[in-house]
């Protein structure tokens, strides 16, 4: 009887502890979600608020004076839609070639029978810590005739070393018996890669694809370095940066009193703050729309791919 009472008390105590932990856990996660979402919601509210009114401050979760003026100003640029298409094309081609190229090299250095496995791995890893610098990279791109070319966005990023290590670690976790069976059936390395490695590596490939796609979509500095003299190859991020610079330049001559007076007028103008918020929303939405489709692979691919060193 005493033992039954003891176990009953233990179970009730454990249940109460779990209940308290769940309350704390849910409260913390809700607080974390609010902290993570608030900056984006605030930027959306500012982007949808009248620019002159935004100077007064006090905008938190919703616009005080709703308007589409900021978005009309940004999309009013003649080059913005062409730049958007270049960014989409760059992201799609760059992600596909980078993930495929990195996966092929990762499969090669994951094979135990590859003689130069250790040497090639070290050679790639060293590039994570040492590089020639900005000027040697520019001279290399120039010698390769990639200046003022769309392929300058694609070729230098075909192999990503960090992604290479992640994919290699994932492939090393695939049972060796599958590779042996494929070899017995007469499959070569390329067939094994296509029929076995790629299908089984879908979680880690989806994770790496998200990393590469975000990097390609957000990149603008390479446009500034290599294609700034070729407007038809300008990307969305570079055009948004240029619009923000023009807005900053137009506001640089205004004093605080001028800005306050402008905020009390009815003039339909934009400010660097409103343009920055609008840029944030425009640049973030495409990635936010893609992420839910890759979310189920994201955690699994990253954790399984990072188990081994």
TrEMBL record:
It is found in: Cell membrane. InterPro entries: MetI-like (IPR000515), MetI-like_sf (IPR035906). Keywords: Cell membrane, Membrane, Transmembrane, Transmembrane helix, Transport. Residues 84-291 form the ABC transmembrane type-1 domain. Coiled coil: none annotated. It is a multi-pass membrane protein. CDD domains: TM_PBP2 (cd06261). The chain crosses the membrane at residues 20-41, 80-107, 119-138, 150-171, 192-214, 275-294. GO terms for biological process: transmembrane transport. Its main location: membrane. PANTHER family: ABC TRANSPORTER PERMEASE PROTEIN MG189-RELATED-RELATED, POLYGALACTURONAN_RHAMNOGALACTURONAN TRANSPORT SYSTEM PERMEASE PROTEIN YTCP. Belongs to the binding-protein-dependent transport system permease family. This is Sugar ABC transporter permease. It comes from Neobacillus cucumis.
């Amino acid at each position: 009887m005493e033992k039954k009472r003891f176990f009953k008390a233990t179970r009730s105590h454990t249940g109460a502890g779990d209940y308290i932990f769940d309350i704390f856990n849910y409260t913390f996660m809700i607080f974390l979600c609010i902290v993570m979402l608030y900056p984006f919601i605030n930027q959306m509210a500012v982007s949808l608020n009248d620019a002159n009114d935004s100077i007064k401050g006090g905008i938190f979760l919703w616009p005080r004076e709703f308007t589409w003026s900021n978005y009309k100003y940004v999309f009013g640029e003649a080059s913005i839609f062409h730049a958007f298409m270049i960014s989409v094309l760059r992201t799609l081609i760059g992600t596909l070639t980078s993930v495929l190229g990195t996966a092929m090299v990762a499969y090669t250095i994951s094979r135990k029978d590859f003689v130069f496995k250790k040497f090639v791995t070290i050679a790639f890893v060293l590039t994570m810590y040492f590089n020639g610098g900005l000027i040697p990279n520019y001279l290399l791109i120039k010698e390769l005739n990639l200046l003022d070319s769309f392929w300058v966005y694609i070729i230098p990023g075909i192999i990503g070393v960090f992604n290479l290590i992640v994919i290699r670690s994932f492939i090393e976790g695939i049972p060796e018996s599958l590779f042996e069976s494929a070899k017995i059936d007469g499959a070569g390395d390329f067939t094994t890669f296509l029929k076995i490695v790629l299908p089984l590596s879908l979680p880690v490939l989806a994770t790496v694809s998200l990393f590469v796609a975000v990097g390609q979509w957000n990149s603008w500095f390479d446009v500034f370095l290599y294609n700034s003299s070729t407007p038809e190859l300008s990307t969305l991020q570079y055009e948004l940066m240029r619009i923000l610079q023009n807005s900053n330049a137009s506001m640089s001559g205004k004093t605080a009193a001028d800005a306050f007076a402008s905020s009390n007028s009815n003039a339909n103008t934009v400010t660097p703050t409103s343009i920055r918020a609008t840029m944030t929303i425009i640049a973030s939405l495409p990635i936010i729309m893609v992420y839910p489709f890759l979310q189920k692979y994201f955690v699994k691919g990253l954790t399984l791919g990072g188990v081994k060193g």
